[in-house]
Amino acid sequence: MAVTVGTVDQERCAWANSAPEYVVYHDEEWGTPLHGDDELFERLSLEAFQSGLSWITILRKRPAFRAAFAGFSIDAVAEFTDVDEARLMADAGIVRNRAKISAVVRNARAAQQLPDGLSSLLWSFAPGGPRQRPATSAEVPATSPEATAMAKELKRRGFVFVGPTTAYALMQATGMVDDHVAGCFRARADTGPTGADVGPEPLIRDH
User: Fold this and answer.
1) Is 47 labeled as catalytic in the residue annotation?
2) Of the residues 22, 30, 42, 47, which is catalytic?
3) CA 4 centroid distance within chain
């Protein structure tokens, strides 16, 4: 899918203007439909690492994460041993959180067991039908019924560190929902894949 990159003076979602890295991420990636088992495994893993941190931290460390986790190849990460986890704990280029590192390895092994693959499972939770586009960032929800269902199913299948908020952030980032606000140049003219119904719950993530 072709992505339109904005000019400096184009209107964006408010969060995108807070750092140069956010501008690029917003313009070229966030909200663009993404498919592929390894590709979505990377995003799932990075969203888990983001928990409790700013997303800008993860973006800046993303190249180091990719190098440390074998490009987020599911099959490669599933073969990681205690020695690999110790290596990762010594890697200053990534977020050195033992529980999150172990979770990525465990999730790779869980992903291997999915009969139709990770991409198919995750996209099965993409909502359908028209939606009301959020007018401002304050109207963007932090989760949705679909994200809650996704998180529940992932947990049932052995995944960890994937709650409803993380699941919804994944859906936003990978275009399963389109939460670019009204007026943002990236807001799709159509409404699909659709986002969650706009509600009163505040946005608690920065992307």
Assistant:
1) yes
2) 47
3) 20
For residue 189, give both structure tokens.
């003219």
pLDDT band at 190 (very low <50, low <70, confident <90, very high): low
Give pTM, 2 decimals: 0.87
55 as an active site residue: the answer is yes
Cα distances (angstroms) measured from residue 45 to each of 114, 148, 183, 191: 17, 17, 31, 27
Question: Looking up tokens 């943002």, which residue turns up?
Answer: 184
Residues in the chain: 207
Q: Which amino acid is at 38?
A: D
Report the first-to-last Cα separation within the chain, whole angstroms. Answer: 21
pLDDT tens-place string over residues 102-115? 999 999 999 999 99
What pLDDT, on a 0 to 100 scale, did the predictor assign at position 7? Answer: 56
Show Cβ contacts of residue 172 under 8 Å, excluding neighbours closer than 6 positions. Answer: 30, 31, 179, 195, 207
Which domains are assigned to the chain?
Answer: 37-112 (1.10.340.30)
15, 22, 30, 55: the catalytic one is 55
DSSP 184: -
CA of 37: how far to CAs of 43, 73, 109, 190, in Å? 10, 9, 13, 26
Q: How far is CA 63 from CA 59, 69, 176, 193, in A?
A: 8, 10, 24, 29
- For residue 194, the Cα-to-chain-centroid distance in whole angstroms is 16
Which residue of the set 15, 22, 25, 168 is catalytic? 25
Amino acid making up residue 150: M
